[in-house]
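Morning, I've got a small favour to ask if you have a moment. I'm working through a protein record and want to make sense of it properly. The fold is given in discrete form, as structure tokens running alongside the sequence. Can you walk me through what the tokens say about the fold? Thanks so much in advance, here it is:
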Amino acid sequence: MTPCARRCAVPIALAIAVAALCYSAWVLEFVLPIDTDPVDGFLSELDAEGKPYRAVFATADKLTGLLLLPAAVAGLLVFPRRGLTTLGWSALFCFGAATIADTLFPLRKCATDCAEGGLFPQLHQPHALTSTLAVTSIAVAAFAFSAAAYRYRRWRILRELGLGVLAIGTAATIWMLVADNLPGSHALGIAQRIQVGAMSLWLLALAAAVLIESREHAAADCPG
């Protein structure tokens, strides 16, 4: 790792970590005086049009994207480029962009109130596209970095903690996809909250991996 990469590692890791915390802002639904249904309701409803605390949740998502965009670009520019890591940083950039787009195309109020349209009435809206892009992008990033951790023997924390978090998020995603084709609700709200929570935890693991690796390289260069 070059001296430039070591200097940039701390702000990159910090940006990713803060982004992870911002992406966890949905937990405020349990604190703020809002009427939500964590079992069957979707997180997109928190910042849907007309919701009382839309500004809080939309701002948190926007900050997530604004922090990850430069972090991903910096990761591409300053760290050694290999196929899997290049894919990972690129996918992380796409996740940041899609998360910002989520705030620009919020869930329309009519979809949250309509009884028609199946389990996912919001799929008929532009918000569905941005949300799908966000979930797909971070999934690609997580799988790419996990594969890189094994192939290049880097980022031990991603091979251990990160892989476990990725498995939990994948299981929650499968839960949602299967339940969508079954009658009933099947606690889809819980599944989505597990999925999004796993995304945040994985981002924290990535931030820790970047920081730890930079310190290990610094210690190796200065053994005395």
About this structure: Residues 111-122 have pLDDT under 50 and may be disordered. The chain has seven helices and no strands.
